[in-house]
Design a protein that fits this description.
Elements: H1 2-8, H2 26-71, E1 78-81, E2 85-92, H3 104-122, H4 128-150, E3 160-166, H5 174-192
Antiparallel strand pairs: 1-2, 2-3
């Protein structure tokens, strides 16, 4: 809980941008104001990266699923690397990699919450690696949420299209891959002590 409050509750302008002008003399206050003004366009660029990565991940997932439904569903699997990797169309009512098929609505709610939290973090974003990580999470969540809403058997209960089938592993899709890659990157950034606002801390 404390970790979440630290990340979400970080200031809109990184600490490195300068000290509070009200607590400084005229010279330092001017420098802080100039640094803060420079941080604003930098923050906007990071937000642009976030949504750019999200849009790319979402588009790739959407297009791949359209192709799979049109060309692969109800057909024999396509071997990519012998038995080790195949493309096989399945409908998954559960979470990523086919887990929890009895909780489709719950996973839909969770995906919606993730999107809302990322949108909230975006206004405090000054770190490029965090922008990429959150963009991957956002694009992946939107990709699977689109299936939940628009595919059968019904709204918020739709089954996700999966098609990447490694041998001995669950079948997944590009949205799942984006979510996992984004999650791994966030873990690595947290271990390095880098916050979304660009500050570095040592616990």
């Amino acid at each position: 809980m404390a970790e979440a409050e630290r990340i979400i509750g970080t200031p809109d302008i990184p600490e490195a941008a300068g000290t509070d002008p009200e607590q400084s003399d005229g010279g330092n206050g001017a420098e802080a104001a100039e640094a803060g003004a420079d941080a604003q366009p930098r923050g906007k660029r990071r937000i642009a990266v976030l949504f750019g990565v999200a849009a790319l991940a979402y588009a790739l997932d959407l297009v791949s699923k359209m192709i799979v439904v049109a060309k692969l569903e109800h057909h024999e699997p396509i071997e990519i690397i012998g038995d080790w990797l195949k493309f096989e169309a399945i409908r998954n009512a559960g979470a990523a990699f086919g887990f929890g098929e009895a909780f489709t609505i719950i996973f839909t709610v969770i995906a919606t919450i993730v999107i809302v939290v990322i949108a909230r973090l975006a206004r405090k974003l000054y770190s490029l690696p965090w922008a990429i990580a959150l963009g991957l999470l956002l694009g992946g969540a939107l990709g699977n949420l689109t299936d939940r809403i628009f595919r059968s058997p019904g709204v918020f209960e739709g089954a996700v299209v999966d098609f990447i089938a490694p041998k001995g592993f669950a079948v997944f899709n590009l949205a799942d891959s984006a979510i996992v890659c984004g999650g791994i990157l966030i873990v690595l950034l947290s271990f390095r002590g880098l916050d979304p606002d660009g500050t570095v801390h040592k616990d």
